[in-house]
Amino acid sequence: MKRQHPIFSPVAIIGTLLLLIGLVLGLYTTGGQAFSPGELSAGGTIGQNLNGYASHASFGEDCRQCHAPFQGIEASRCENCHVTIGEQRLAGLGLHGRLLTADCAACHSEHQGPEFRSAALALEQFSANDHARLFPLTGTHVQLECESCHINEQYLGTPGDCVGCHDEPDLHRGLLGTDCAGCHTTDGWRPAELTGHEFKLDHGDEGQIACATCHTITFNEFTCAECHSAEEIDDEHDDLNITPSELADCAGCHPTGTEDEAERIMGER
Ligand code: HEC
Ligand code: HEC
Ligand code: HEC
Ligand code: HEC
Ligand code: HEC
Ligand code: HEC
Ligand code: HEC
Ligand code: HEC
Ligand code: HEC
After folding, report:
1. Residue 172 Cα distances to 169, 185, 192, 197, angstroms
2. Is the confidence at residue 30, as pLDDT, over 60?
């Protein structure tokens, strides 16, 4: 009996072809990466099953969940499970919503073994510059532990307004409003600086005038009568031809209390 050539036999040729097709298919379906560079993380701090999986390791063989064939990591694949991240990106919320890149792998590594926690590493690498894009840490805030603002390691949804973290003190008697940054910086509560106060507190020539001299009852109202007598006021405005009720709006013509501005303002009317 004639023995078949061991390499060019039909069986061997078909077998080799099948192997080749299998390899190509395999390469294709695994995103061109036939070999995983390492085991996937087997846990997480989110504390939830996502699409029925407990961790990345529980679907680790299915490379396509994260890798697009021949293209590497694709955000939309991650967001099939991490729906909330996709929502934040759509709504422009928080860190993920204000990212300059959709390249998840720029911050989130993988294949570092079952104990690896991707979010913890990303947080470690989260710099002061990154933080400043969301909320600059200035003044006394620089010294604070992360934990003092991010209680229980909750990062998303931290309030950014001063009043979100600081109650108006009793001293203010509820009269100063909640735009704290109009009078305070993060350097310290004292001294307060009225950055939004147009009327100069040291107008005239007697130095700084105490708040209560003009604001005798609330900060919504003021009086100038303590120093500018009704007689003086009448004299100064005699020739202006305005009614007493118009005259009462001192700040309308004297917004800062400096000389000659009133004439200019009246001229513009
Ligand atoms: C098939 C669903 C699925 C896909 C796809 C997926 N993940 Fe996850 N991911 C999970 C699950 C499940 C957890 C663990 C949940 C937990 O923490 O309890 C997790 C956890 C995480 C964590 C938190 C880990 C930690 O340190 O607490 C990060 C970050 C993360 N995934 C990023 C990604 C990125 C980036 C991609 C795309 C490359 C991705 N995931 C794709 C299901 C998925
Ligand atoms: C949970 C999502 C996820 C799954 C599932 C996953 N990978 Fe990855 N893989 C990643 C991430 C994220 C990176 C980028 C890691 C980095 O840059 O540190 C990566 C990187 C790689 C790399 C390095 C080259 C590159 O693209 O950056 C290879 C190769 C790779 N993965 C192969 C595989 C294979 C093979 C499988 C399936 C057996 C697989 N991966 C499953 C998330 C995943
Ligand atoms: C004085 C308070 C304060 C301190 C201290 C602080 N942060 Fe923040 N952090 C914020 C505020 C406010 C935001 C903005 C939240 C937003 O706009 O979505 C924020 C946002 C973040 C985010 C983005 C969360 C997300 O998913 O959108 C991360 C991450 C973060 N901070 C990490 C840190 C780390 C790490 C430290 C310590 C090195 C720290 N922060 C210290 C107030 C603070
Ligand atoms: C600029 C770096 C950066 C990029 C890019 C980035 N992340 Fe994150 N990610 C972080 C940091 C820092 C944390 C931890 C702080 C936190 O939870 O907000 C985090 C936490 C997470 C978590 C766990 C917390 C949670 O809310 O579920 C998931 C899941 C996640 N990222 C997925 C993604 C996906 C998906 C992408 C790509 C669309 C992505 N990340 C891109 C930095 C980044
Ligand atoms: C219109 C200006 C103004 C606004 C708005 C304002 N403050 Fe003040 N605040 C002051 C002045 C004036 C003082 C007294 C400063 C001094 O005595 O040197 C003060 C003092 C304080 C003090 C020190 C109290 C003490 O007993 O030592 C705290 C704390 C404070 N403000 C918190 C806030 C917070 C929180 C907000 C926003 C909810 C706020 N302030 C809004 C003007 C303002
Ligand atoms: C995310 C929370 C958060 C936000 C937003 C925030 N702070 Fe703070 N701030 C803190 C914490 C926590 C401390 C330290 C504990 C304390 O003194 O209340 C602090 C401390 C301070 C101090 C020092 C107090 C002292 O007695 O030394 C000042 C001043 C201050 N903040 C001003 C501001 C101003 C002004 C804003 C708005 C521009 C602001 N903070 C926004 C959390 C916040
Ligand atoms: C504590 C006393 C005091 C109070 C209160 C006061 N002023 Fe004066 N003001 C002065 C003195 C002193 C001068 C300088 C001498 C002068 O022209 O009478 C002055 C000057 C002025 C001038 C002229 C500007 C200049 O530089 O010569 C105007 C305008 C003025 N005040 C408006 C007001 C208005 C409006 C109020 C109320 C919102 C007010 N003042 C409250 C003491 C006061
Ligand atoms: C010389 C008089 C004068 C003094 C002193 C003065 N203010 Fe005023 N303040 C005014 C005038 C005038 C206005 C009204 C400006 C306007 O209506 O455009 C005003 C407005 C305000 C407002 C805004 C009220 C509102 O309705 O929004 C606040 C808050 C305030 N002052 C706080 C203070 C504090 C705190 C001090 C002491 C540090 C102070 N003022 C000292 C004259 C004064
Ligand atoms: C309709 C505009 C108008 C109103 C309202 C008004 N003033 Fe005048 N005031 C003037 C003009 C114009 C002058 C002339 C000199 C100038 O330009 O300051 C003047 C002059 C003054 C002077 C003298 C300035 C100097 O250079 O010596 C004082 C003080 C003064 N006003 C206070 C007040 C007070 C207090 C009130 C509120 C009761 C008030 N004014 C309301 C327009 C006004």
Report:
1. 6, 16, 12, 16
2. no
Two tokens, residue 182: 């109009």
Quickly list DSSP for 164-203.
HHSPPPGGGTT-S-S-GGGT-BTTBSSS---TT--S-TT-
Q: Which residue, among 92, 163, 87, 162, has the nearest Cα to 133 in the 3D structure?
A: 92
Tokens 């735009």 sit on residue: 179
Beta bridge partners of residue 73, listed in sequence order? 67
> Of all atoms in ligand 8, which is nearest to the CA of residue 208?
5
Quick check: CB of 160 below 6 Å from ligand 5? Answer: no
Q: Tens digits of per-residue pLDDT, 154-193?
A: 999 999 999 999 999 998 878 788 889 988 999 999 988 7
3-class secondary structure, 255: coil
- In the reported structure, the alpha carbon of residue 223 is separated from the centroid of ligand 8 by a whole-number distance in angstroms of 10
Does residue 95 line the site of ligand 4, with CB under 6 A? yes
Phi first, then psi, for residue 211 (nearest 5°) are -50, -45
Closest ligand 1 atom number to CA of residue 121: 26
Measure 122 CA to ligand 1 centroid, in angstroms: 13
Q: Cα–Cα distance between 105 and 68 in angstroms, integer?
A: 13
Does residue 99 have its Cβ closer than 6 Å to ligand 4?
yes
